[in-house]
Each structure stands twice: as structure tokens, then as C-alpha cells.
């Protein structure tokens, strides 16, 4: 596979994830957020299992109790991120959700300090300031315009950062990213279904009405897009992968406008641009610094 083909796969994955924001928003017209999360990740677990079996044939590291414990912990982090994002979409727009969720790129280095005591690259501090300025502009320059959903989505981004940090260290130990994926999907599905059965009503009609969104997000956003990401990142550079995967926020914004008719003030678009810039520089500047420091 050529680098161009790999980058196109990553772009397709980002587009699928962007469409997932629209599906998550429209599904709640028919079904509660926790039922949607539970069914979505239940489908995702089944979708990834065939790839897990293929991966197991080539696995060189035996799965231990420690690994299983980490899988469960990562699943809880994913459940926290999925829950706050889904509930947040009830009171925020797809555009806001897609861009604010992308702040996990900025949070990851900060979370790494807490977990592994590793100081972040210097670029994280100006990037964090830029991201906060972007959120302020996204509100139209009025903090009162930020909704509860926007706040929940910031928390969601923090959960994603925890999940990404733990997943990165776990995959380096287990060498089984697809097994990790299926395990965290399964944990999230069980947690969400338990909560949903306790507090949310459900009917066959509700599930039927939300079925297209559940299947899209479960099969494509979680299953297909994840596999595309794993394949694509094997054949391209981290810098280019960051650029193409970060376009998820742009796809979410564009699809929100086209399919749901969402709009925002001009200052809001400037805020999106600032947030997108913060996401990119956090990924690109450290990588470029490494390449420059390497001997020719």
C-alpha cells in the first residue's frame, strides 16, 4: 500500500467518525442516550470480533490477568467518554460536540503527566491557551452562551484522553489492539445497558426507529473506521496521520450543517479554526522536532 492510499484510508475513517456525530444526535429523537450507547457498543463488539480472532492467530504475547484488568479500566474510561458525549449532544450542536471532543489531543499530554509523571512538550501550553480561546469564541464571545452539553463534552474529551493514554501503554504490552478494542467496547456496552435498564424507558418501536443510527455508529464508526485507522497508520507518518484523522472535527461540522441545518456566528467559525489549530500543533510540532533532531 502506498502512502497516498494509506492517507486516503485515514481520511475515510475521519469522515465516518464525523458522520457518527450526526447519527448520535438524531438517534436520541427515538431512544435514550444510555440505550443508544449500550446497543451501539454491543454491535461494535460483535463487528470487531472477527478481526480479534484473526489477530489472535499472530499474537506473540499471552494475555494475563493484569492485561484483563487494564482492558476493564480502559472500558470504564470509554464508558465515561461515551456517556458524557452522548448526554451532551442533547443540549449542544453536532458542530460544537465534534470540535470540543477533539480537545482530547490537547489533554493527552496533560493526562500523561498525571499517569506516568512525564512532562509534556512545551507546545502543549500555548496549544491549551489556544484551545480555551477557541471554546470561548465558539460561544460567540459570551460564556453564558455555552450550554451544559458543551461542558459535558469538555469532560468527555478528558475521558477520551485517559482512554487513549491507558490504551497506548496497554497495546505496547499486549501487542493486541483489536483485542483491546473488543474488550473496551464490551465493557462499555454492559455498563450502559445496566444504567439504561435502570433509568430509561425502552420499546421495540424505539429500537427500530433508531436502528439505522445504531448500526451505522456500531459497525462503521467503531468497527470499520477503527480497522481503517490501524491499517492506514502502518503505511504513513505520524504527522500525516494526525492531519487526516484530525479532520474528523471538520467532517462533523460540515455534515451537521448539511444534514441538520446547523449554523453558528462568524466568531464561532473562528473558534473552530483555533481549536483545530491547537489539535494539529500538539500532534505535529513534537513530531517535526524529533525529525529535525535525527541525524541526516
UniProtKB/TrEMBL annotation:
The organism's place on the tree of life at top rank = Bacteria
Is the keyword Transmembrane assigned to this protein?
yes
SUPFAM superfamilies, per database record: Multidrug resistance efflux transporter EmrE
Membrane-spanning residues: 33-56, 68-87, 99-116, 123-139, 151-171, 178-199, 214-231, 243-261, 267-285
Task: Tell me what topology the record assigns in the membrane.
Answer: Multi-pass membrane protein
Where is it localised? Cell membrane
Give the main location.
Answer: membrane
- Domain EamA, residue spans: 7-139, 148-282
Write out the entry's keywords from A to Z. Answer: Cell membrane, Membrane, Transmembrane, Transmembrane helix
Keyword Cell membrane tagged: yes
Offer one Pfam family short name for this entry.
EamA
PANTHER family xrefs: EAMA DOMAIN-CONTAINING PROTEIN, OS03G0707200 PROTEIN-RELATED
The protein's name: DMT family transporter
